[in-house]
Amino acid sequence: MGKRRIQLLPSRERFKNITLLGLPIVGGMLSQSVLNLVDAAMVGSLGEAALAGVGLGGYANFVIIALVMGLGVGVQATVARRRGEGRNEQLAAPLNHGLFIAALLSLPLMLLCWFNAEHIIGLLSDDGDVIAIGSDYFQWRTLAVIAVGWNFAYRGYWNGIRQTGRYLQILVAMHVFNVVISYGLIFGHFGLPEMGAAGSGLGTSIAMFLGTGMYFLLTWHTGRRHGFMRSLPSLTDIRFMLRLSVPNSLQQFFFATGVTALFWIIGQIGTAELAIAHVLVNLALLLILPGVGLGMAATTLVSHSLGEQQPQEAYRWGWDVVRVAVVTLFIMGLPFWLVPELILQAFTRDPELLTLGTWPLRITGLGMTLDAIALVLTQALLGAGASRTVMSVNLGSQWLIFLPCAYLAGPILGGGLLAVWLLQTLYRIMTSVIFAIMWERKHWADIQI
How far apart are CA 180 and CA 423, in angstroms? Predict the structure, then answer.
């Protein structure tokens, strides 16, 4: 009796399906990181107050747009399920619902933030110059909340029908517009007014609306046969999409506020720890984004298989994508734990900061390999429609376990940044174990979308 061969990666055909779906999404996410660095470089030339103000304004904007980001997952899961069921004439109906809901949610959010920008930024800083710059930047960014909601809905549609390359093409075009327009508005080039840091916010918003226009034209051309813009959603349709999307939006919102709480906790330890923590988080995002991108491929593959009434195939897709993500993040994380000092020296030459960041960065490189399970299975479960369960696990583990323990171990017991970072890695490993158990039990296969 021969020994069973254990494959590190899925079969060639399944690996091809995963990469064809996942790579454009990963590329788009990484391009966003590059854009953030370019944006910071342009604004950074205006001084520390401008850089700090734009940083706070950008973070406040992320907390707000988190409330509409869940629409992308809701649309993607539903479109992929309908495709699996063979209901091609209804593929764009979930997109119609998502666009309508995005408008309903975004307009009051935009007005609330526009008229209270100074107060909101004032909650994050005591520096008058930073508040003034951050408020102007935040106001211009909030104008595009509705465009962000629409763009996430469009992304869900194109990912759901397995044409993720369209998402990448439009995102890259948006980034090019963003850099050119923001540069012109910041420094007064190309006949545009010189607005300083606020020009970066307006430039980004203009690029977002240009992206929405490109999405609309592309979808109008190819999506009419799928029902795009052919009817208004009913109250039942709206409730259904909200049931899928709101839990994920709330999870994104509380995750964003949880990151704020984490930085506040680290700030209680010391200023140096807070400074290096910002670097560590940005480096961790370089590993997280590929995991999330592959997870979004799992959303489509799982939902499509369930639409075809093949729950075992959906189950296999979940673990196959996990295997690809684990190998990918392991390889990408190697430099983090082999040469952490060399990586950190690209951001700071301060010996104290390098010493503080070395072991946390090593832990990030090692821990992210296991975190790949949570990153992928979170998206796979969302594809199956288990959005409330995902929200409960993520929020419960972050707010009820990790953050209280981090505050106790760091500022109270004197464990420092290293103790907080160890706890963060342990909490993410714990969520990986929980999601793995949930995936094995297969209760998600009975959820109707």
Answer: 42
The per-residue pLDDT for range 92-111, each reduced to its tens digit, is 999 999 999 999 999 999 99
Integer Cα distance of 132 and 355 in angstroms: 35
Integer Cα distance of 367 and 370 in angstroms: 6
Distance, in Å, from the CA atom of 112 to the CA atom of 375, rounded to the nearest integer, reads 32
Tokens of 233: 């959603």
Is residue 52 over pLDDT 60? yes
Cα–Cα distance measured from residue 158 to residue 314, given in angstroms and rounded to the nearest whole number: 20
Q: Are 208 and 32 in contact (CB under 8 A)?
A: no
- Name residues whose C-beta falls within 8 Å of residue 82's C-beta, 6 or more positions apart in sequence: 88, 90, 91, 93, 94, 307
Residue spans of alpha helices (H) in 87-225: 93-115, 117-122, 128-142, 145-160, 164-187, 197-223
> What residues contact 263, with CB distance under 8 A and at least 6 apart?
274, 277, 278
Enter the tokens of residue 331: 């390889």
The secondary element (H helix, E strand) that includes residue 19 is helix 12-44
Provide the pLDDT for residue 36.
Answer: 65
- In this structure, the number of other CB atoms found within 10 A of the CB of residue 400 comes to 10
Q: Which of 145, 248, 182 is nearest to 36 (CA)?
A: 182
Q: What is the pLDDT of residues 212-227, one digit of tens each?
A: 999 999 999 888 889 8
pTM equals 0.81
Range list of H helices, 188-270:
197-223, 235-269
The mean pLDDT of 73-80, rounded to a whole number, is 89
Question: Helices (H) and strands (E) in the chain — how many of each?
Answer: 16, 0
